[in-house]
Amino acid sequence: MKKVINFLFTSLLPSDFKRQAKIISCRNVLIYFFFQRIIGINRNAPWPVHWSSKVISPEKIIKKSYRPFPGYMIGQYIQAVNGIHIGYGVRIGPGAKLISANHNIYDYALHDDAPPIIIGDNCWIGANVIILPGVKLGTHVVVAAGAVVTRSFEEDDIVLAGVPAKVIKKLELYQGELGYDNEGI
Fold first, then answer.
1. SS3 for 68?
2. For the chain, what percent of residues have pLDDT higher than 70?
3. Domain 44-170 maps to which CATH number in 1.10.10.10, 3.40.50.300, 1.20.1250.20, 2.160.10.10?
């Protein structure tokens, strides 16, 4: 069976699938491919998106590297009407909501203009976090599970928590890999 899967990935599928398989496994690429390309759930996103997640305006998401895959984790809602910029080495937890535009209060069919959400390098967005329009996060910002980020925190090496989010801890410099290049994993 592994030989058949390897044959499929090396000869029949585009190089993008091969790259994804190195990150999330052949099995997950095939499952996500089925839900996105055959069933049509999140078909507009060019990266793997979980079938229980929703990605709106993926063309307005700018990522510094191939990863992360916004919407990959269960139950994420990624709304990029005003744009989302994501740095290197960012992790986004299950149930996270990144909302870049509010509805206009006089016409709910319209969205208000706002600056894009900007997430710095090596940030960790915990489970069920909500990040609202125009928020900027510095480098190595950890947002605790369940936090609601309503304003920018451009300071580096901090932990945010609460509703609304506030700084609860200062961190030492990030120790891990400092990011990914556009071709690497």
1. coil
2. 86
3. 2.160.10.10
> Which residues form the catalytic set?
103
End-to-end CA distance of the chain: 25
SS3 call for 110? strand
Residue spans of the domains in the chain: they are: 1-40, 44-170
| CA atoms of 103 and 23, how far apart (whole Å) | 36
- For the cut 90, the answer to whether the pLDDT of residue 17 exceeds it is no
Higher pLDDT, 166 or 20: 166
CB 81 within 8 A of CB 56: yes
pTM of the model: 0.85
